């Protein structure tokens, strides 16, 4: 495609691509518009609160009406600093020769970017963005659980994915959630995630729940675990963290 010179025209085209695809790669957007990735980043930074660049992807932070309050890649990500802090604490737990499971959501890409290199680590995931980050890391083996792609969640699901998990011993499972509530337990917004999360927790030696402080006291539609099933709840606020 020929170069699109006006910033407002590029922004309009990016919005149209996001409406069509839900999430787009930064490099694909740059190629489509005939400009550099740096130009795209500058354009997006000039529209604060409208877009996010995460793991080489462009996502919209405009909440989609009727989406049940949460759409991965469309959620209003106001807790990015807290999520990065949480994931830095989680990454410090990863050891040489670990096989780890990284959940989907808007928190876990931060962990994917912090997975240590130079260690013999295997990462299992079912998130497209997490996989895109991990695939570029040296000395890190990736197992992507495939199946039907759910655009709203940015993740895959299938019976075969559950069967694969059943055959793998996981050292550490890093799980995300949309809500943590003392009475109603740990919940998420997408029902297709439930069996995958539950199997990963079941197969893991240790499971860690990674949630920022905005998730406490919230309840989402799909229940998948109790707080007692996690060795540690890792949060941005120490008073909310929990060790089993």
TrEMBL record:
InterPro entries (UniProt xref): Carb_Metab_HTH_regulators (IPR050313), DeoR-like_C (IPR014036), DeoR_HTH (IPR001034), NagB/RpiA_transferase-like (IPR037171), Tscrpt_reg_HTH_DeoR_CS (IPR018356), WH_DNA-bd_sf (IPR036390)
Domain HTH deoR-type span(s) in chain numbering: 7-59
SUPFAM superfamilies: NagB/RpiA/CoA transferase-like (SSF100950), Winged helix' DNA-binding domain (SSF46785)
Transmembrane segments: none
GO molecular function annotations of the record: DNA binding; DNA-binding transcription factor activity
Any Pfam family: DeoRC
Keyword terms of this UniProt record: DNA-binding, Transcription, Transcription regulation
Keyword Iron in record: no
Domain of life: Bacteria
Matches recorded under SMART domains: DeoRC, HTH_DEOR
Name of the featured protein: DeoR/GlpR family DNA-binding transcription regulator
